[in-house]
Amino acid sequence: METLYHQTNKQIQEVQSLMGNLERTDRQSVHLLENQLQDRIDMIFNHLERLEILASKEPPNRRQNAKLRVDQLKYEVQHLRTALMNFQHRRYNREAEEREREELLSRTFTTNDADTSIHIDETLQYNTSLHNAHNGMNQLLENGSNILTGLRDQRSTLKGTHKKMLDVANMLGLSNTVMRLIERRATQDKFIMIGGMLFTCVFIFLVIRYLG
């Protein structure tokens, strides 16, 4: 196991060194370097699978330490693979942007090109409408949030008022009938508040669904 462990660790260090050359490699050669790195990473993962099997066969007093060492190598190579994928993703996006820019620059426009003018006008109008719709939706969401906040504040106020009324009623020795009337009114106010909150939530959901 020790021989395979040190061999795998050395391969990881070599991959780390090659990763530093990605940003400095020209566009024609970067694909070859990416493929080389991917092949080495795949080989390292194969070695790690073998190391996991060997670690599980170690004596009990050394097994835990062996698994920890293998896990450390696995963490390092997973980090390298993620870094390679991120680099490739950035490169793909950069190349796509360059192609789109070249296509746009190579395209010729004339003042008499009616179709092009109509297309540009439609695009500008669509973007303006979309921007206005987003602003309107944000305003509706903000209003809905303010309504919910107000309802929560009203609930807290009603609860405080209800408690104070009960305390006063106990102090004055009011009858049980009056006490029940007070509690019934508080319950009605609670249902009204819950209904308002549900209506507001449904309204916001419908706005998001049909205007989003």
Summarize the structure.
This protein is 90% helix and 0% strand.
In words, what does this structure look like?
This protein has five helices and no strands. By secondary structure, it is mainly alpha-helical. The chain is flat, with a radius of gyration of 34 Å. 5% of the residues are buried.
Q: Main traits of this protein?
A:
90% helix, 212 residues, mainly alpha
Note the quaternary state here. single chain
Structural class: mainly alpha
Order of helices and strands: HHHHH
The profile of the biggest β sheet is:
none
Strand content: under 5%
Query: What shape does the CA trace take?
Result: flat
Query: Helix content range of the residues, please?
Result: over 70%
| Structure summary, number of beta strands | 0
Report the C-alpha radius of gyration, rounded. 34 Å
Distance between the termini: 59 Å
H/I helix tally: 5
Low-pLDDT segments, ≥5 res: none
> On the 0-100 scale, what is the average pLDDT?
76
